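re: ur msg from earlier - yeah i can do the fe (ii) ion complex, just paste it... oh wait u already did. ok heres what im feeding in:
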Amino acid sequence: MHAATSIPEVLPSPPSPVVTDADRQQARRLPLSTRFVLGDVVTPVQRAFLDEHGFLVFGSVLTTNEVAEVLVEIDALQTRWIAEGRREVHGIPLFVGRDPDGKPYIQRFAFTSLFSPHLHALVRDPRFAPIRSLVGRDVRVGDREKDGLVFNRNLNVPGSAYPRLGWHTDGLRDLFLNRAVPGPTLNVGLHFDRVAKADGGLRILPGSHRQGFLSMLARKPYFVDHRPDRDEIAVETEPGDLTVHDGRTWHRVERSPHVGWRSLRRTMYVPYVVDAYAPKHEGSKTPFYHRLGRIPRELRVKLGR
Ligand SMILES: O=C(O)CCC(=O)C(=O)O
Ligand SMILES: [Fe+2]
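and the outut:
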């Protein structure tokens, strides 16, 4: 038995909004670049926009101060994990590359809320209750599930372990984890840098979550395809913005055209989960897609490509 594997608390969330045809029509008329305001509840039009396009952006959900506080936590975690020579957490590999000065730089952190009380508390803040209502009822934070609370730092330098990410849906990963055809899961991201279309960043095929299982399986070759799609849109973000995307949408992360620190793009993905409790622990097996990704990534870092 492992300590502290009791099921995390179910968090309060308001009821999901009732969506009418008028709401759907209104949502369809809004530009795809709409930045919504997060209130005490998700509005029917916001829900309709997510259902229609597969994603939603809420502007300035974290304050400037909160953004800075999270970054301090992550820097502290980097110092600690580099000093420990840590390579993985609970079977999930850390992506360790080099920063613009050639120093070791963690570019994908997993399970951060297990190591930072500050982050553990932040993702339970009442302001996220409406976001949780989008995910479902009886939502918990998956501190120990999947990859936990993930923090990404995309950087475009020689030796970067994570400059970009090829086309994929997140649903297929859930398929490998659960061995079941995935229903809708939502991915909730917090953003820490100003990233406009010209800076690279998140690209999504709007509406692709509605195209069925076959499209999810085979519309593009997973992760190796980085080519722009004529139907893709760029999700532009400001520090403190929150995004929600349906796990079945096709998306990718475009490499920044800038180099060095100017290319830095930081995001945090919050695992709000409703499915059967499946915690990871020390000694958990590395999922096969993480084992697969590890080899080319570590080679790239070594060769400084
Ligand atoms: O960096 C992002 O915003 C998205 C990352 C992503 O798609 C993933 O980790 O599955
Ligand atoms: Fe993804």
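cool cool. Residues 168, 170, 251 surround fe (ii) ion (ligand 2) (CB under 6 Å). ping me if u need the other ligands too
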